[in-house]
C-alpha cells in the first residue's frame, strides 16, 4: 500500500486555487490507462498535445487538451499542462463570446479524492474567436505527478476532468429605489365605535410615498383570532395603476392609541407589497378584554383612535419589465 507523502501542491501557485473534494467532475472525465505510452507516442510523432473527444456542457461543445510534457511555448516545461478548448466553433454565431468559470481536476487515487484546480477568486474567462482555450500551463509539476506516493499516477493510470459553468445574462434582475425617510402618519378616528356591525371596516384612502393606501379594521378580529382580539391591516389601494412586476417595501407602524398614556397597542413591520400581496398587519393587535376595559384608555367615550405611520418606502422593479 502506498503511503501519502507530505503534499505541497495545494499551495503551489498563488494565482491558482487548489483544493480536494470527493465529488467527481460534473461534465467530463478523461481516464488514461497507459500514460507513458501516450507520452511516448506524442514524442515519436512530434505532437505536443493530446485532445479528448468533443463533449457538450452548458449548451456548448468542448474538449480537453493535455500536454504530458508541458506546454513549452507557455513556460510549461517540467509540468503537466491542461486546457479547456471550445469546439465546433464554425457553428457559433458571428461575433460569438462565451464567458466561463471552470475547474480542472486530477484524481488522487490514494485518497480517493479529486484535486480541483481553478483561477483564484473564481475568475471568469472569456472565450472568443481569438482566444479559444484557457487552462493551466503549470497544472502540476511532472515530478509530483509522476511520484506514485502522491496518488495521481499509479500503475501508469491517471484521471483528469473538467467542470464548466457558463456565465450568461438572462435579462432578469431588479432595481431597488430607496426613497427618503417619510415619517408620515395617518390618523383614523372612529366615533360611535359600538355601532360598528360589519365584520370589517375601511378607512379613507390616503397617500404616502406617491402611493395610495387604506387601513382595514376587524373590530372582533379576522378568522385567525375571531372573538378575542382586534385585527388591523394596512393595504395598498391603487392596484389598478400599480405596474406589473413591481413591488414596494415599506416600514410601518400600526397602532391603536391609548388615550390616557403612551402604552399603545402597536406593531412595527417591514414588508413587501405587490399586486398579489397587497395587505400586511396583525390579526391580534389588541385583545377585546383590554379594549373594553375603561381603565386601559383605548376606547374613550365610545371613540377609538387608530394611526398608521410609514417611515420608509422603497420600490423594487424587475429589469425585464
Features:
single chain; 321 residues; mainly beta; six-stranded antiparallel beta sheet; elongated; disordered N terminus
Secondary structure elements and pairings:
Elements: E1 16-21, E2 28-32, H1 35-44, E3 50-51, E4 55-57, E5 60-67, E6 79-86, E7 97-108, E8 113-119, E9 125-128, E10 133-141, H2 142-146, E11 158-167, E12 174-178, E13 184-190, E14 201-202, E15 206-208, E16 211-218, E17 229-236, E18 246-256, E19 265-273, E20 279-287, H3 288-291, E21 299-300, E22 303-318
Antiparallel strand pairs: 1-8, 2-11, 3-5, 4-5, 5-6, 6-10, 7-8, 7-9, 7-11, 12-22, 13-22, 14-16, 15-16, 16-17, 17-20, 18-19, 18-22, 21-22
Average residue-wise pLDDT: 88
SSE class: mainly beta
Characterize the main sheet: 6 strands, antiparallel
Helical segment tally? 3
Taken from the alpha-carbon principal axes, the silhouette is elongated
Write down how many β-strands occur, each being a DSSP E stretch of 2 or more residues: 22
Q: Tell me roughly what share of residues is in helical segments.
A: under 10%
- Along the chain, the helix and strand elements come as EEHEEEEEEEEHEEEEEEEEEEHEE
- Uncertain stretches: 1-6
Beta fraction of the residues? over 45%
The Rg value, from CA coordinates, equals 34 Å
Instruction: Compute the separation of the termini in Å.
Output: 63 Å
